[in-house]
Design a protein that fits this description.
The chain has 401 residues and is an alpha/beta fold. It has helices at residues 135-140, 148-159, 177-187, 225-234, 253-264, 282-292, 302-310, 316-331, 340-345, 351-373, 378-385, 389-398, and strands at 8-9, 19-20, 35-42, 49-51, 56-60, 67-68, 79-84, 87-92, 99-101, 104-106, 108-111, 117-119, 122-129, 167-170, 195-199, 214-218, 242-247, 268-271. The strands form 4 sheets. It has a 6-stranded antiparallel β-sheet with strand order 4-3-13-12-9-10. A 5-stranded mixed β-sheet has the order 6-5-7-8-11, with no helix packed on it. Strand 9 (99-101) and strand 10 (104-106) form a beta hairpin.
């Protein structure tokens, strides 16, 4: 499968070796809280990003609105939205199913930057963007990417923006392959065209490949033998449609045949890193997931965050979300609302103090975990951790283990 290298000349064959370049792609984007967009996080339009052209918009299911939703439970003119700095003002326009901010019905209310707006069966979240942000930057803002592994992946997605090769999005279960695939479509030159989404398990025959649109096939691992044969025939020539596919790490033989055919027609692989390789993304991910769960103001401080960072999370982001869903009421009490970033990183205290507390918690949890893994055998635990046995003893004494 073809790979792209950030900072390399990948303009030729995706299967060819990369040639080093002197310039490097800057994956960082500086955001200022001045303009909003809305991301549909649940509902028929899931994955769409609705960007404000001005400060106001009407949202609904009718044709005479700025933000049109394809949700039958949404009224024709459902709500009027106004950007108010870091908040979004919502006015119900007499919608049958009402407007809900963090699951509280409102006739006139405000959605904070970390809040959720529900209209019918559609849930939206505000996105704070740079006033000059391009459509590509709007889409990439969906991804929490502070870790080196994610920043490298974002750089590859940027390079694929103006290209049409098929893309295979791989990774362990729960890493967010579907979200990455949708972002790939949103940054591409066909982003204004339709994205048809099909699940591999629902394919009895090969799907039609419209020439100008894009097709996303989810979970190629679930493809039946019959559907795999049909898809191989459809891929006998290079499809004109933009083809995006998600797949896990251990495909069955008939699925591997499809992967080989994708490779033969120049598909590029985008590997989504596991959560254990994204420690730096934890604060942002936890804040986002808590907002998704409707509890953006849970007081999660450096100590709790350090404990979360210490876990390996074999189920990745999906497991983290399930953990937060089941534990949030028991572990944390709802606090007075304040800015998400301040609460997550302990910004009410000096940097050195907050950072030290988080690292102390991580260190203690990590040492305890590797000792448990090796049944208390210090020598084996030290080898596993890649540290000196004497130093491990020192850490154990430090934390009373």
């Amino acid at each position: 499968m073809g790979h792209l290298e950030p900072g390399a000349d990948n303009r030729g064959d995706a299967m060819s070796a990369a040639t080093p370049r002197t310039d490097r792609i800057d994956c960082s984007v500086v955001w200022t809280p001045s303009v909003h967009a809305l991301e549909v996080v649940e509902g028929p339009d899931q994955g769409r990003v609705l960007r404000f052209e001005g400060n106001t918009a009407v949202i609904g299911a009718g044709e005479d609105v700025q933000f049109r939703l394809h949700d039958p439970t949404v009224s024709r003119r459902h709500a009027h939205l106004t950007v108010m700095g870091s908040e979004l003002e919502v006015r119900d326009l007499g919608a049958l199913n009402g407007c809900f901010v963090n699951e509280q019905r409102v006739v006139h209310g405000y959605v904070p930057a970390t809040g959720r707006l529900r209209l019918g069966n559609t849930i939206l979240r505000p996105m704070v963007l740079n006033p000059g942000a391009s459509a590509q930057e709007v889409a990439l803002a969906e991804l929490v990417a502070q870790s080196p592994a994610m920043r490298q992946m974002v750089a590859i997605i940027r390079m694929l923006g103006d290209r049409d090769e098929p893309v295979l999005v791989t990774g362990e279960p729960g890493v967010g392959r579907t979200r990455v695939a949708r972002v790939l479509h949103a940054v591409g030159k066909r982003r204004s065209r339709r994205l048809e989404v099909r699940h591999a398990r629902d394919l009895a025959t090969a799907p039609e490949l419209p020439s100008q649109d894009s097709l996303l096939i989810l979970q190629l691992d679930d493809l039946s033998t019959r559907a795999a044969e049909a898809l191989l025939d459809a891929l006998s020539g290079r499809p004109q449609a933009r083809l995006l596919v998600t797949a896990g790490p251990s495909p069955l033989p008939h699925v591997q045949e499809v992967l080989s055919r994708l490779e033969a027609i120049g598909a590029v692989e985008v590997a989504v890193p596991p959560l254990r390789a994204r420690r730096e993304d934890m604060p942002g991910l936890v804040a986002e997931l808590l907002s998704d769960l409707g509890v953006p103001d849970v007081p999660l401080g450096p100590t709790e965050l350090g404990k979360i960072q210490a876990r390996s999370w074999p189920g990745n982001v999906r497991e983290l979300k399930d953990y937060l869903r089941t534990q949030v009421r028991d572990l944390f009490a709802v606090a007075t609302p304040r800015r998400e970033t301040e609460r997550i990183v302990g910004a009410e205290r000096p940097y050195k103090e907050a950072r030290g507390e988080m690292l102390e918690a991580f260190e203690k949890e990590y040492v305890q975990a590797i000792l448990d893994k090796h049944d208390g055998n210090v020598s084996q635990a030290a080898r596993h951790a890649g540290i000196d046995r004497v130093y491990l003893h020192r850490l154990m004494k430090k934390h009373g283990l």
